[in-house]
Amino acid sequence: MKSKTYEHKSSIKMMSKKIFLILALIATVFVQNGFAQDSTKTQPAQLLNAYYKLKDALVSSNATSAATNADELIKVINGTDKQTVNDDIKAVLLKDAGAISGSKDIKVQREKFATLSADMIELAKLVKLSAEPVYQQYCPMKKASWLSKDKTIKNPYYGNAMLSCGVVKATL
User: 33-68, pLDDT tens digit by residue?
Assistant: First the structure.
């Protein structure tokens, strides 16, 4: 009889922990959305513009420029405030931008850009990065997305080989 009571109490404790974690996650989202309402400051726009420059270098198939622009993106990421980009997101973005910066191989850079873009898309869903529309575009050949300030498709994953391959998936 005691073991059933103990199991029941243990089960209740586990459920309480799960509920607490879910509530903490929901509270985090609401706090970040609260900041998103007022985050059209220069830092989010600088972050997005640095990302766009990197994307444009990959569209042009210019590995040297991509590495240079990834360096600039790293500086901007490091300069963003915690209200815009928390430390966990910064770490993820820095890892991908660092891999692009450290490579002169366009294929490697494009591979890492896919991961960087997925993380930037998630950030753009949480934080308003620009007063202008931000387009989430998708390449079905690469099965990867990226952000763009233009509706016109300019594919960073294949450059001139398939410049217009892709579709606009969403406006963020």
Answer: 444 444 434 478 999 999 999 999 999 999 999 999
Measured distance CA(32)–CA(71) in Å, rounded: 27
| 158 CB-side CA count, 13 A | 18
pLDDT digits (tens, 9 = 90+) for 138-147: 999 999 999 9
Average pLDDT over residues 3-9: 53
171 forms bridges with which residues in the sheet? 135
Of 125, 31, 112, the C-alpha closest to 74 is: 112
- List the Cα angle 100/158/119 in 5-degree steps: 45
In 3-state terms, the chain is what percent helix, strand and coil (to 5)?
A: 65, 10, 25
Task: In whole angstroms, give the CA distance from residue 41 to residue 65.
Answer: 27
Angle at 33 between CA 117 and CA 149, to 5 degrees: 40
The pLDDT assigned to 10 comes to: 54
Positive or negative torsion for Cα 128, 133, 134, 136: positive
Is 119 in a helix, a strand, or coil?
Answer: helix
- Please tell me the distance from the alpha carbon of residue 40 to that of residue 42, in angstroms, as a whole number: 7
